[in-house]
DNA sequence: GCCTTCGGATTACGTCGTAAGCTTGAATCG
DNA sequence: CGATTCAAGCTTACGACGTAATCCGAAGGC
């Protein structure tokens, strides 16, 4: 296609067109941001870069490695976040708070890629999301130690930080990627575990339409199921009544208050067994 | 293969062999538990049930719907959990605590399937993991309202419950599914965002071997990267020093203390603006 | 000059989800 | 009872996927 012109505007100053592992990961991330994780197939990534799919393997071992690189790329946005500090300037609270806000920023910037960050298997059980990289784990731990934390206190803070961000941000980004509802309910049983199954519709009759949306993709469908006119009043009266409240967005305020409480929890631990 | 004997031991008392949406979902879940999400292909599920892959479509609309059914199946373990109560018997704290422990139980029982529970797009932004089903959301909310919560208090508790469990359990189950390490590090940049890239190895040279392990699968490889002999002492001195502490398992104790704190947080909210 | 090296294209294989149509045997009804 | 119906399961086939193997042409070093 086109011509054999090879502009060679690459920065590395070597052969080939500007392809590189990072550029590939960046293209993959763009595709995910636009159309979900599933849209980032090797062929699609190649097409976006004006290259055949197989050429990517000259820079990336496998698609799995590429996904890991995307995760790394996302987390690496912390490096260029101006509000995040690499070491505590005004105490550990501000350090952790700024870092947490940085994490939230990258999570909200890539709601489709964030599940990747949270669920891809790590190289060790203690390399946890949402930091996921040894450099940042090192940074956090050494920052806390420098602030006078004991080893145990630092590790406790590390775990609390991880689980808090994981929970809140997965909720928040998950709420951003929702697909269309189903007519039938299809529950196998009810919470009261007394009646077997009073479900009327059973399995859905009309659902021939297919859209690829496994764990891999998560379509963008931002359309929100407006609760108050879809919820079955008889089966779910409380949900029906609280519909408006359920749909309200409390993410920012509760992120702040949850973060504060988490930091308080850590501070409490500091006071409990002082160094 | 075999013979044309058709034992017809099905419970439903109709035609066909015992196949059903629930049996299919159960087979899929077993495959996931054994070998990761990716192992539950339509063909593999069919094989496990002694049936061709296409036969599954007589009971399941699409593989996506099947994954949703698996999620439902996992969450439905709450229904048969003897310690979980369908309505508060001794106050909301015990109700929520028992429910939380029930969720933890199903999460630990299916560490490979749990990411599905946490990341599959829901039918509405407020249908959140780890409950994910309208019956259980209804149950939780009505339980709290019955205990005297205001609407806002119940919704706050619902969100706190979700994000706490999401965070802790994703950490815990994530630590159970770890894959083998890579020789090279491959970071694009370091946390201090001062030096560009002091990485020695760059991209991995020897990694021709492939094993399917995208978000879909997450191989079982329970082998743990023993920190103290693999961590680069020069680049990550703190991690190296804290290696033993990082590898320690604090999940149960910190789940308990975190749960207590979360319930305290809710109680605080009750006191703040009393009904 | 040649020769190595390396980045990209080509071809091809096995597996995946699944659309379309066929077969079959139990349930139903005359 | 035999004819009909029809859902459950089988067969075939297609396009998209990840990727192994191979080839090719140009840039760099000698």
Walkthrough of the structure:
The structure is a homodimer of 275-residue chains. Chain A has 275 residues and is mainly alpha-helical. Chain A has helices spanning 21-35, 42-48, 63-75, 91-109, 114-119, 134-146, 151-176, 227-230, 237-241, 243-247, 251-272. In chain A, helix 1 packs across helix 2. The longest helix of chain A has 26 residues, at 151-176. Chain A is flat, with a radius of gyration of 23 Å. Mean pLDDT of chain A is 82; it is low at 1-13, 182-188, 193-214 and 218-224. The interface between A and B is large, with 111 and 110 residues. Chain B binds a DNA duplex (30 and 30 nucleotides) through loops.
Distance between the termini of chain A: 68 Å
- What's the alpha carbon Rg of chain A, rounded to whole Å? 23 Å
Shape of chain A: flat
Total number of helical segments of chain A? 11
Query: Would you report the number of β strands of chain A?
Result: 0
List the helices and strands and how they pair.
Two copies of one chain form a homodimer.
Chain A: H1 21-35, H2 42-48, H3 63-75, H4 91-109, H5 114-119, H6 134-146, H7 151-176, H8 227-230, H9 237-241, H10 243-247, H11 251-272
The structure holds a DNA duplex (30 and 30 nucleotides).
